[in-house]
Amino acid sequence: MANTDKDSKKVSAEKNKSAFTLDVKDNGVAILSMDVPGESMNTLKIEFAEQISEMLDAIDSNKDIKGVVVVSGKDGSFVAGADISMLASCETAEDAETVSKGGQDIFQRMEDMRAHFVAAIHGPALGGGLELALACHSRVCSDDKKTQMGLPEVQLGLLPGSGGTQRLPRLIGIQKAMKMMLTGAPVRAKQALKSGIVDDMVPKSVLLDVAIEMAQAQKPRRKEPKLDLMGKFLERTPFGRNTLFNQARKQTISKTKGNYPAPELIIDCIETGISKGIEKGMAVEARNFGQLVMTAESEQLRNIFFATTDMKKETGVTGVEPGQLKKVGVLGGGLMGGGIAFVTATKAGLPARIKDIRSEGIANAMKYSYDLLIKKVNRRFMRKSEMQKQMALLTGSVDYSGFGDADVVIEAVFEDLGLKQKMVNDVETHCNENTIFASNTSSIPIGQIAENAARPGQVIGLHYFSPVDKMPLAEVIAHEKTSDQTISTTVELARKQGKTPIVVKDGAGFYVNRILAPYMNEAANVLLSGEPIEHIDKSLVKFGFPVGPVKLLDEVGIDVGTKIIPILMAQFGDRFKSADAFDKVLADDRKGKKNKRGFYDYSGKKPGKEVDESVYTLLGITPAQGLSAAEIAERCVLMMLNEAAMCLHEGVIRNPRDGDIGAIFGIGFPPFLGGPFRYMDKLGAKHVVDRLNHYAALLGDKFTPASNLVEMAEKDKTFY
Predict the structure, then answer these.
(1) What's the pLDDT at 129?
(2) Active site residue 314
(3) Are strands 187-188 and 148-150 parallel, antiparallel or unpaired?
(4) In a domain, 312, yes or no
(5) Of 448, 478, 507, which one is at a domain's C-terminal end?
(6) What is the DSSP string of 442-453?
(7) Is residue 293's pLDDT more than 80?
């Protein structure tokens, strides 16, 4: 009991400890260090306002202080941004506007101070962290690969609210600043130096020394951004700026379809500040920030952020720690195998041993990684030495030599049950008794793959999405005999590879493909009813998907996209019966983009941009628009929502959160809607059931509502 008291006192003391310390040196420079107690990364919190003000008062009152170096007390990061959870306490837009103004006032005070502030940046300086650095008079960063700078607020449906929309354009130019804010993408140290965000870039070992010298030198506080002739016309003439902002708005609307309010408001903030002055720009920034905090879109995007943050802290099975991960084997050197080897070596930093039946397959897998890495080298995102180090982690063989010490072997061969079962047997024969066999199957139940295994507890599914280097989701599929240790170790591997893993129960289609299939089927049924392909795809893009269902089928391959249908029908019956459209286009050797024959035309000057009109003749239909975009979207999306509810009811997914993340990261369900379950909560279970019943009466039993949805509608329940 005494120990518990001691621990609680220690935690309390940590919480009460200031996040800021000021160390005044004899050379007229003070070191202002930020180190948030009990946190692995520095984040800015509302309660720090008083602490920062006290530090600034101390600097102001000490006339010996000529310069201040702002550093992080954390070894691996500068400031990762503001603490987003504080926005939950804002009840009105005015409350959120006050938060923004508070940050603006502190940073403006820093900028206006007599002492010369220098930000010494090592590691991430994101969001409020970069805004803090921008308020300093000079900036120097380390050349470390961890160092990156960005304003990612748009990804949370927000905008930089502490002066970022005003200071960054003045520092690096309107176009570069707007691109950073509208995409939310960070820049590396070299890019930051080239664009003018930082004044210098040095090795970490001398970062503090150089920052102190800069603070003593008292360099000029602001510099004009470097612009070429066209840049000067666009950014420094009224006509040019008008053209620039008008084009930015058009392009933004084209991309967001009006579903995301933040980008347009970011443009408003920048334009106001440039045309009417920084004071008015700051006022608009605070007001727009307040409005965005209260939008449903930002709420859902923040929900996704919190969900993924929580998932990073979880093990695959609660209380079961993952086993060791020192080496990974990959079976198959095709597109998927090459992608899996790439993320294993470059993200996880683990040796990846590739096996293929042909040496050409191994060469192709190696080339996959080389091509991606050399692009980074050529763009100066990566040193050549770093690339060589990562490539050295990739080796290959046409037999199982070098596989004996693999902790996990990931199979990425053809979708053939017999072949996959043979792979299990081979791994059990040639690898050690603790080796986990992970199958990258997209459709075959894992229990069937493990049917003849000597160690079924070490057989699991690890389903990646193509292209592996870009798609963030991985499904970890446990069959009935998979051990808890195997689950936790596989989740840890996926996480190290840069994926967000969700654990799902074994069964046809698992989770993501199972909810995608009825959505795609319904799109095909709408097509067969005579709706034009472009209208169907545009309807779902307008709803918020990154690409329409027909176009998606062409992209992944019509043969690949439909092969799961018989497997789903075998387990679930006629609910998954596919439309005749698929059979007819496949019989005509139309596989989509890969063989340049699909629903879209891949010949001519705009390959894949226009529909292949001969498809309509093949399907025996005369296209004519009869349904509204809203009706088409509703029919297709309801099928997905209903299936997601069934998956939760059957325990295919562990909770609604995993179902939402799986749909967003796996198939591009609109993030601003929060995922299928958040969206159903927003619509209300009663509304969802009513609409399903409406379509069931018109179009048949496939729209019959899931039993748990019916129960929720009756009891007025929600998923969250």
Answers:
(1) 96
(2) no
(3) antiparallel
(4) no
(5) 507
(6) SSS-HHHHTTT-
(7) yes
